[in-house]
From TrEMBL:
UniProt name for this protein: Cytochrome C oxidase, cbb3-type, subunit III
Keyword Nucleus: no
Taxonomic source organism: Bradyrhizobium erythrophlei
A molecular function GO annotation: metal ion binding
PANTHER family associated with the record: CBB3-TYPE CYTOCHROME C OXIDASE SUBUNIT FIXP
Key word Translocase present: no
Cleavable signal peptide: none
Positions of the Cytochrome c domain: 26-102
Entry keywords, A to Z: Heme, Iron, Metal-binding
Amino acid sequence: MVVVAGILIGKVASAEEDVPNLKDPKIIAAGHDLFLAKQCAHCHGADGSGGIDLTQRELYPKDIFQSIADGREKKGIRMPAWRDVLTDEEIWQATAYVISISRQPK
């Protein structure tokens, strides 16, 4: 079990080292397309403000990446892991889109 955890942590760490420019409009647009295509809007709403609201909080790239990659549970609602469905590049695209719609520090 420790080996598996080490492998997963290593994969997230290596993916974080390859962080693209999350403000690049092309990357954000690709993330928006994924958000719609992968049914993220089903739980988060078309603009990210439904169910588990993505727009009213400061969200940090590494946390978003990890939540998308590994899934998470909050308030009894389970978000599935997308690591086996999306590439790291696609997860970063989705991360860029979520950052673009979330409240950011001033």
